[in-house]
Design a protein that fits this description.
The structure is a single chain. With 272 residues, the chain is α+β, with helices and mostly antiparallel strands. Helix content is 53%, strand content 11%. The protein has a domain at 70-253: 3-Layer(aba) Sandwich (Glutaredoxin). The protein contains 10 helices and 7 strands. The strands form 2 sheets. Strands 2-4-3-6-7 form a 5-stranded mixed beta sheet. The termini are far apart.
Length: 272
């Protein structure tokens, strides 16, 4: 009888020890959950602030002309093999690059928040792509100035210099961009007869236009544009300069518009 009682006491003791070893799961304290959430929110906020500061600083630098080019699209660049490799970004006189005697669109030079200079070739397929993108500038013409400069690559497009001269002749009649569009749309034929026909189809004064083309009045002007491009580091077409910052290749329209908006935002911050 004593043995049975002893065994029962042992079983009860073992059960008691087992019960004492069981852990009851407890819910995390509300205070701890709140603290973890606050830490996460603070961390996310800091990341966003750092990102915004870097973006704003970057584009302010571009507007001032002392930042590295935003990107490059060399996969859509017609390279002039007669020139050497691309030169590093250099300090340029952005105002001198944006000449006053070349065809332009948009804001007055003194009012332009952003000045875009393009060196292009009427025979270049990538310059042709860009010709459509340029029309997207229409909604920004109160703050953006665009300047078109010639950079014919004669090894690849033997009549591109004549097309450039014809464009300047159209500029005499304040019809450059109409003619610009017409030539790019008919890029497969840049013969002299075709260039004169395009002017006729646009309703230009063909007597004046043809005389201008025949005289090669703008041959020197076209060559000066090309040499200015070479001096600025242009090695192919199209090449853009955003306030003096070089960007090579045909820029997709969505990126082109985004860059303009970001320049505008940065310029607004500078003027505040």
């Amino acid at each position: 009888m004593l043995l049975e009682e002893s065994n029962l006491d042992g079983i009860e003791a073992t059960e008691a020890i087992g019960a004492s070893n069981e852990t009851t799961p407890t819910e995390p304290a509300p205070k701890k959950r709140h603290t973890a959430l606050m830490i996460g929110l603070v961390a996310c906020t800091l990341i966003v602030i750092i990102f915004l500061v870097r973006v704003v600083t970057y584009y302010i630098g571009i507007v001032r002309g002392d930042a590295v080019a935003p990107t490059s699209f060399v996969q859509s660049l017609t390279v002039d093999a007669s020139l050497g490799p691309a030169t590093p970004q250099q300090t340029l006189d952005a105002k001198a690059l944006a000449t006053l005697d070349d065809p332009s669109l948009g804001a007055h030079p003194d009012d332009a928040l952003l000045t875009i200079v393009e060196f292009a070739d009427f025979g270049c397929p990538y310059s042709r792509e860009t010709s459509y993108v340029v029309r997207a500038l229409a909604e920004y013409t109160t703050t953006v100035r665009y300047v078109y400069r010639d950079f014919p690559i004669l090894d690849l497009h033997p009549t591109a210099d004549l097309a450039a001269e014809a464009g300047e002749c159209a500029q005499e009649q304040n019809r450059f961009f109409d003619y610009h569009d017409k030539v790019y749309q008919n890029q497969f034929d840049l013969s002299e007869s075709a260039l004169k026909r395009y002017a006729q189809e646009l309703g230009l004064d063909t007597v004046l236009f043809n005389a201008c083309v025949d005289s090669h009045r703008y041959r020197t002007e076209v060559e000066e544009d090309r040499q200015a491009g070479v001096a600025a580091g242009v090695r192919g077409t199209p090449t853009f300069f955003f306030n003096g910052v070089r960007v090579e290749g045909a820029i997709p329209q969505d990126i082109f518009s985004r860059l303009i908006r970001q320049f505008q935002a940065a310029g607004t911050l500078l003027s505040d």
